[in-house]
What does this fold into?
Amino acid sequence: GAVVSQHPSWVICKSGTSVKIECRSLDFQATTMFWYRQFPKQSLMLMATSNEGSKATYEQGVEKDKFLINHASLTLSTLTVTSAHPEDSSFYICRQWTGGAYGYTFGSGTRLTVV
Amino acid sequence: GDSVTQMEGPVTLSEEAFLTINCTYTATGYPSLFWYVQYPGEGLQLLLKATKADDKGSNKGFEATYRKETTSFHLEKGSVQVSDSAVYFCALSRLFDRGSTLGRLYFGRGTQLTVWP
It folds into this structure.
């Protein structure tokens, strides 16, 4: 099946710095990438949807300037948490969408801790 | 709009017990239904799916049947193992309809399952 490689799997950064998370589609071309955030013991919250070559669509309440999403190619989408603060600490997961029956694959997640 | 209501947890069972996790949905038309499993510190893995009414998805001893008359997709396993301890998410998506929600997954809240030896 489709494989999505997400990196890094965990990162610790200082408050005020920026962190980039990558999701790379290894064997399919992901037209669309969904980015989620998950708080401990909670479900996934959709943050934004990115399509190759166009601006991301953000969910209500998600700050576009804080969570920058770039989908420059069909195989790579990135989420950059800018000027990170401790409240941005969370588990971030991507999911690629290739259409039809192949749109099921999640990345392995990134645990972000801001200190 | 589309939504999923999932049985609240946590669920604690002894090994070899029978498992049921209830899931009901609200959606127009014919969504596809999924169960995902998440082990600690990991992303989500597809456990099983069903794309039309009366379909039964099955994998690793888990089963769920797409019941349109009751708008349900309950997850069952006849004999759970310690290794089944994880969080289970019910979800729905429109894989074949057109529109802005194409490909989007709507998740339930998740149910924590703990199996004791």
About this structure: Residues 53 and 66 of chain B are 5 Å apart (CA to CA).
